[in-house]
Amino acid sequence: MDQKYLFTRLFECQKCHLQFRHPADTKSFSEKFYQADYVQDDGITTDLPSSEKLAQMINNNFAGSAKNADEVITLWRSLFAHLDQIKAIDYGCSWGYMSYQIRKKGVQLQSFEISRPRAAFGNQNLGLNIKSETQDLMPGNDLFYSSHVIEHVPSIPDMISEAKRLLKPEGIFLAECPNGSPDFRSKNEFGFHKGWGLVHPNYLSDKFYMHLFKDNPYLITSDPFDLESISKWDGVSQQVHNTSGGRLLVMAKPNFNRSTP
Prior knowledge:
alpha/beta, Rossmann fold, 31% helix, 22% strand, globular
């Protein structure tokens, strides 16, 4: 489907429509890589801020920062009228900048981060309780949320299985990731090419999510997110909206089987 450098190629599984990078990484390599080697160039996602910089961000409630969570909180509010009445998982929370802001809205939040150094930083400096072992997360949640995580994981089925364990019967799986859908590629070939590679072994598309959640309710869309349409989703139907934006968004109920009476 696409190629980078000399040997790195993008393939698509003809059965499930997952687009994946070859050569692939092993699970053990991924776990080691994300402890300390993984770096984002935005200067905040993986870089741990100084005490002075962190104090400034906290005092400003992360306003003006690339990691201000207002957009995410607004998205959550389109699904849940009262955030202080839900239990949620922030899966892949880095050092907890988003978890910190979400908790301030009253959400009963559990946070997970595979990188122990980043988890420890959030726990020590933001008063969080970030876990680095999924078995330490408690079930019974209304929402399982991940922001730019699923494109990194060595096993998407393992991530979905964990989400199913942690969610209530009608709990929502909500994930943002780079958009590998055909509509986005048609609109922005350069953006499509940039969206997969070294740290993104998985490239998710609308076709993949439609197959993954074929038995479940879902809504698939891309940015800019139409919050009115999202808020009107009945939680039972399968809907695909505009998928030509750079960020792909899926919300699904993996524990709700539409064929079960």
